Amino acid sequence: MTPVSVVILTYNAAATIGATLDSLAGLSDDVHVVDSGSVDATLEIVRAKGARIVSHPFENYGKQRNWAIDTLALAHEWQLHLDADERLTPELKIEIATLLAAPVAEEIGGFYIPRLVHFHGRALRHGGMYPIYHMRLFRKGRGRCEDRKYDQHFRADGRTGKLAHPMIDDIRLSLSEWTIRHNRWADAEVDEILEPGGTGVIAPGSGDPVAEKRRARGWYYRAPLFLRAFLLFHYRYFVKLGFLDGKEGLIFYTLQTLWFRFLVDAKLYERMKAEKRK
Asked: Where is pLDDT greater, at 177 or 218?
């Protein structure tokens, strides 16, 4: 087994958690699932796969991740953090096992992993969707998740590297559930826009891929309200060739880029109007 502990967050993830755990087979003997009240078959599947289960109420992604880091008795020096709908490709599993088979230079705190989104069975390789790098593999005591209201990411202290092979983000939620979650995330993003802050936030100019993405988002927020959602959709769907991702891509880019970004602007406009009336 590879000297890596795995932490997975779950909530009603019966559709994907089995594949996530199966993708870890032969990699780790220390797999922890932090569940926040699943009422479907998630926990039965986890028990059948032999992973450890702990329950903890969910407040937000960053707090849940940091609670796991601070609380769980993780056995190994390296930690791999996943969501319940993320799984390792066979190539990534081999890459991690090979990497950690020998001592890693002490100055290296963590590794970024590219994420490949599968939306309702279709890999989204265009539209700027791949590769997007996320810090998910880091040493014990060197990694932390940002404490923000929305769009929380891990950071690692020390030098970092990038792995070559992707993890799969397998989005199988029904469109009803997907839009419910994005409606909730739109509220969280408006909160973050109006009251930015948080602790442990990845600094601009740090070279972190997340910081660079947020720098680009700063240009987006300088564009006119509402119009910018249409401009972003045009850029991702046409300029970045999102149309090559088929019907699933059309659904994804329309909902995730146009509808969601427009919804954020509409909620922001609503909040600003309400503030002016006070």
From this structure: 177
